[in-house]
Amino acid sequence: MKSEQLKIPQATAKRLPLYYRFIESLHAAGKQRVSSTELSQAVKVDSATIRRDFSYFGALGKKGYGYNVQYLLSFFRETLDQDERTNVILVGVGNLGTALLQYNFSKNNNTVITHAFDVDEKKIGTKVGEVPVYNWDKLEEIGLQNVSIAVLTVPASQAQKSADRLVEAGIEGLLNFTPVRLSVPAHIRVHHIDLAVELQALVYFLKHYPL
Question: Which residues fall within 8 angstroms of residue 6, CB to CB, at 6 or more apart?
Answer without folding.
Answer: 56, 57
